[in-house]
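Q: Could you fold this chain for me?
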Amino acid sequence: MSAAAAFAVISGVRPLSCAVRVEAARTVLAGALLEARREAYRSASSVLVEAREGDGEVVVNPPGSARRLGDGVVLTRAPADQNVRFGASGFADNATLTISCDDSNASVVVNQRGVIR
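A: Sure. Below is the predicted structure, expressed as C-alpha coordinates.
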Protein backbone atom coordinates (compact mmCIF):
# COMPACT_ATOMS: atom_id res chain seq x y z
CA MET A 1 0.00 0.00 0.00
CA SER A 2 2.90 2.40 0.76
CA ALA A 3 4.35 1.92 -2.71
CA ALA A 4 1.03 2.84 -4.31
CA ALA A 5 0.75 5.97 -2.17
CA ALA A 6 4.33 6.98 -2.96
CA PHE A 7 3.71 6.47 -6.68
CA ALA A 8 0.57 8.62 -6.51
CA VAL A 9 2.49 11.44 -4.83
CA ILE A 10 5.46 11.22 -7.19
CA SER A 11 3.29 11.11 -10.31
CA GLY A 12 1.55 14.30 -9.13
CA VAL A 13 4.82 16.14 -8.50
CA ARG A 14 5.96 16.22 -12.15
CA PRO A 15 2.89 18.12 -13.46
CA LEU A 16 3.07 20.60 -10.59
CA SER A 17 6.80 21.02 -11.15
CA CYS A 18 6.22 21.67 -14.86
CA ALA A 19 3.47 24.19 -14.11
CA VAL A 20 5.87 26.13 -11.87
CA ARG A 21 8.67 25.94 -14.47
CA VAL A 22 6.36 27.10 -17.26
CA GLU A 23 5.27 30.13 -15.26
CA ALA A 24 8.91 30.98 -14.50
CA ALA A 25 9.77 30.52 -18.19
CA ARG A 26 6.89 32.82 -19.18
CA THR A 27 8.49 35.52 -17.04
CA VAL A 28 11.86 34.91 -18.74
CA LEU A 29 10.26 35.04 -22.19
CA ALA A 30 8.38 38.27 -21.45
CA GLY A 31 11.61 39.74 -20.07
CA ALA A 32 13.47 38.92 -23.28
CA LEU A 33 10.74 40.56 -25.34
CA LEU A 34 10.82 43.66 -23.14
CA GLU A 35 14.61 43.78 -23.45
CA ALA A 36 14.27 43.72 -27.24
CA ARG A 37 11.65 46.48 -27.20
CA ARG A 38 13.82 48.70 -24.98
CA GLU A 39 16.90 48.05 -27.12
CA ALA A 40 14.99 48.93 -30.30
CA TYR A 41 13.98 52.30 -28.81
CA ARG A 42 17.45 52.93 -27.38
CA SER A 43 19.36 52.09 -30.56
CA ALA A 44 16.76 53.47 -32.98
CA SER A 45 17.00 50.26 -34.99
CA SER A 46 15.24 46.92 -35.32
CA VAL A 47 15.87 44.22 -32.75
CA LEU A 48 14.91 40.57 -33.15
CA VAL A 49 13.99 37.93 -30.65
CA GLU A 50 14.91 34.59 -32.19
CA ALA A 51 12.35 32.03 -31.07
CA ARG A 52 12.67 28.62 -32.67
CA GLU A 53 10.10 25.90 -32.04
CA GLY A 54 11.60 23.06 -30.03
CA ASP A 55 14.33 25.24 -28.48
CA GLY A 56 14.70 25.84 -24.76
CA GLU A 57 15.93 29.42 -25.16
CA VAL A 58 15.31 32.66 -27.00
CA VAL A 59 18.01 35.05 -28.22
CA VAL A 60 17.76 38.86 -28.36
CA ASN A 61 19.74 40.25 -31.35
CA PRO A 62 21.47 42.56 -30.96
CA PRO A 63 23.21 42.16 -28.52
CA GLY A 64 22.95 38.38 -28.90
CA SER A 65 21.93 37.60 -25.33
CA ALA A 66 20.38 34.16 -24.85
CA ARG A 67 17.68 33.57 -22.26
CA ARG A 68 17.18 29.95 -21.16
CA LEU A 69 13.59 28.97 -20.49
CA GLY A 70 14.51 26.34 -17.91
CA ASP A 71 14.76 22.57 -17.62
CA GLY A 72 12.14 20.75 -19.65
CA VAL A 73 10.51 23.92 -21.04
CA VAL A 74 10.51 24.42 -24.81
CA LEU A 75 8.89 26.71 -27.34
CA THR A 76 6.01 24.86 -28.96
CA ARG A 77 4.64 27.75 -31.03
CA ALA A 78 6.54 30.59 -32.65
CA PRO A 79 6.09 32.87 -35.67
CA ALA A 80 6.60 31.26 -39.08
CA ASP A 81 9.96 33.02 -39.58
CA GLN A 82 10.99 32.09 -36.00
CA ASN A 83 11.56 35.77 -35.08
CA VAL A 84 9.72 38.59 -33.34
CA ARG A 85 10.91 41.96 -34.65
CA PHE A 86 10.67 45.20 -32.66
CA GLY A 87 11.17 48.39 -34.64
CA ALA A 88 12.65 51.69 -33.50
CA SER A 89 9.21 53.31 -33.85
CA GLY A 90 7.74 51.03 -31.19
CA PHE A 91 5.88 48.80 -33.61
CA ALA A 92 6.44 45.06 -33.58
CA ASP A 93 5.48 41.89 -35.39
CA ASN A 94 2.22 40.35 -34.23
CA ALA A 95 3.27 37.13 -32.54
CA THR A 96 2.05 34.46 -30.18
CA LEU A 97 4.75 32.40 -28.47
CA THR A 98 3.76 29.27 -26.58
CA ILE A 99 5.98 27.39 -24.17
CA SER A 100 5.35 23.93 -22.74
CA CYS A 101 6.57 21.35 -20.26
CA ASP A 102 4.63 18.09 -20.37
CA ASP A 103 0.94 19.09 -20.20
CA SER A 104 1.61 22.58 -18.81
CA ASN A 105 1.79 25.49 -21.23
CA ALA A 106 1.57 29.27 -21.36
CA SER A 107 1.56 31.91 -24.07
CA VAL A 108 2.96 35.39 -24.49
CA VAL A 109 1.37 37.64 -27.11
CA VAL A 110 2.99 40.64 -28.81
CA ASN A 111 0.71 42.96 -30.75
CA GLN A 112 1.56 45.32 -33.60
CA ARG A 113 1.92 48.27 -31.20
CA GLY A 114 4.64 46.34 -29.33
CA VAL A 115 2.47 45.59 -26.30
CA ILE A 116 3.51 42.35 -24.61
CA ARG A 117 0.90 40.31 -22.68
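A (continued): The domain at 2-110 is CATH 3.55.40.10 (minor pseudopilin epsh fold).
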